Every structure is written in C-alpha cells, then in structure tokens.
C-alpha cells in the first residue's frame, strides 16, 4: 500500500472493490508496506488487514522484499487461494512480487486507479496454459 497523498481510497480498497466486481472475494487480506504508509491509512481498519511491514530500505531492494514476503506468501498458499496486487508497490517491490507470483504460480494484478481498471499481469488463464501446456 502506498502513501496516502491526496487519495480518498487506498489502492488496496480499489483493487478489492474491482476484484469483487469480478466475483472474487477475500477471507484474508495481507498488505506488504512501510510503517509510514500504514500510519497514513489508519482509517482502513474496516478491511481487517494483516500487515507485513518493511522498512523504507527493504522495500527498495528486490531481494529484501522477496525475503520478507515469501514466508508470508507460502503460509497463505497453504490455506487460501491467493491473488497478489502490485499496484502501489515501489519498482523493486513490483519486480519482487512478479518474481514471486511467477515462481509460485499466483495470479498478479495491477490497478489503474484513476480509471478504476484492473489488469491481470499474471492471470489464472495464463497459469492454466502454462501448467496444462506442460502436461501435454
């Protein structure tokens, strides 16, 4: 989740809303972000978010984001169907999320906030083609 700036709605809220419109709902929401961003979004407690906090330095390094996020991702994959969102991430974090999504075969979305448009960076269909293509 990024810094608030002038936003009324967080990127996380926008992504959740757009995914719900597509029939995808969530039992658990985990957001990887910095301490500073969390402080700016105190009012989203209605989402019941679980935070994965990274320092400003960690969120600026691909390897450190992967190192911090991977254990949480693996835990989620054991118990839930997972969709990752790289909308508000730093560039290094976005790269890390893409690498993790590719490695663990997890759908990954990006949201164009102003247009409220959801883009599948790694879609379920992409994953099916990749996995089923290997079986034939």
SSE map:
Blueprint: H1 11-21, E1 29-34, H2 35-40, E2 49-54, H3 62-79, E3 84-85, H4 91-104, E4 108-112, E5 117-122, H5 124-135
Parallel strand pairs: 1-2, 3-4
Antiparallel strand pairs: 4-5
Helix pairs in contact: 3-4
Question: What would you note in describing this structure?
Answer:
With 136 residues, the protein is α/β, with parallel strands linked by helices. Helices cover 45% and strands 18% of the residues. It has helices at residues 11-21, 35-40, 62-79, 91-104, 124-135, and strands at residues 29-34, 49-54, 84-85, 108-112, 117-122. α3 (62-79) crosses α4. The mean pLDDT is 84.
What is the terminal separation in angstroms? 40 Å
Structural class by secondary-structure content: alpha/beta
The chain-level mean pLDDT equals 84
Strands ordered across the widest β-sheet: 3-4-5
For the structure shown, list the relevant keywords.
5 strands; 136 residues; two-stranded parallel sheet; three-stranded mixed beta sheet
